[in-house]
Amino acid sequence: MATAPVGVSGAVFLPPVQVSVVGVPSPAVTPTNLLHIVVAGPGALLRHHRAGTLRGPLTRLLVLGTVPGVVAGAVIRVVAVPGPSVFRLLIAVLLLPLGGRLCLRTLRRASRRAPAREPSSRAVTRPAMAVGVAGGIYGIGGGSLLGPILVGRGMPVAKVAPAALAATFGTSAVGAGTYALLSLSVTGDIAPSWSLGLACGLGGLCGGYLGARLQPRLPETALRLLLGVPALGVGGLYAVRLRR
């Protein structure tokens, strides 16, 4: 409910709980998180579809960029990034600068915000593919990265959020399928924890629908901070854990 208004599924918050509290092994935490997104995603998407905010080229461009990237990210996660230390470093490096930059720009421009500008197709698909790779490695659909990137470039959160959620759902479905196929040929903890993924997903399904309904009632500055502060906090959490 807290993250759906800004185009984030909430999956960015779950790996610390899944790894540190529940004890899901690595890299099985990644497909478990993707499974959660597949179950949770339709809640917010249904609300946005009814409001007519899923239409437009931005949604198509994000999906076309992130889907190929998430397949590559899943392979990289299994083959080259199996350990928790590299995993935490990657997230800290990705989220800290994104969250910090977005928060600073939002606070500076609270009184004089620059007009939104429409990026070119290439300017959308290239970072979307890179985000897809990162999402396949981390176990997120990419909305937590796409949101700060596009909003940081001046696009309004209300336009970015539905497209980012649609891309998140598509990449998560493809990513979960990729991990399922990899688990047939690669040894180790690769298959998702089905019970945990489904349980988290059911909670996200309800919360996502409520969050999408809440979005039109929140001002743009609040939405930007709601996107930047969690990114900064999660990145900082992983940076601190690297020192332990």
Classify the beta-strand content into a percent band: under 5%
Number of beta-strand segments: 0
- Distance from N terminus to C terminus (CA atoms, Å) equals 32 Å
Shape call: globular
Biggest beta-sheet profile: none
The protein's oligomeric status is single chain
The SS-based structural class is mainly alpha
How many helical stretches? 9
Radius of gyration (Å): 17 Å
Topology as a string of helices (H) and strands (E)? HHHHHHHHH
Q: What average pLDDT do the residues reach?
A: 80
Main attributes of the structure:
244 residues, mainly alpha, 73% helix, 0% strand
Q: Can you put this structure into words, describing what you see?
A:
- With 244 residues, the chain is mainly alpha-helical.
- The protein contains 9 helices and no strands.
- Helix 5 runs antiparallel to helix 6.
- The longest helix has 26 residues.
- The protein is globular, with a radius of gyration of 17 Å.
- The relative contact order is 0.26.
- The model has no long low-confidence stretch (mean pLDDT 80).
Write the layout of secondary structure elements.
Layout: H1 14-22, H2 29-51, H3 57-79, H4 84-108, H5 121-138, H6 143-152, H7 157-182, H8 194-214, H9 220-242
Helix pairs in contact: 2-7, 2-8, 3-5, 3-7, 4-6, 4-9, 5-6, 6-7, 6-9
Summarize, please.
With 244 residues, this protein is mainly α. Helix content is 73%, strand content 0%.
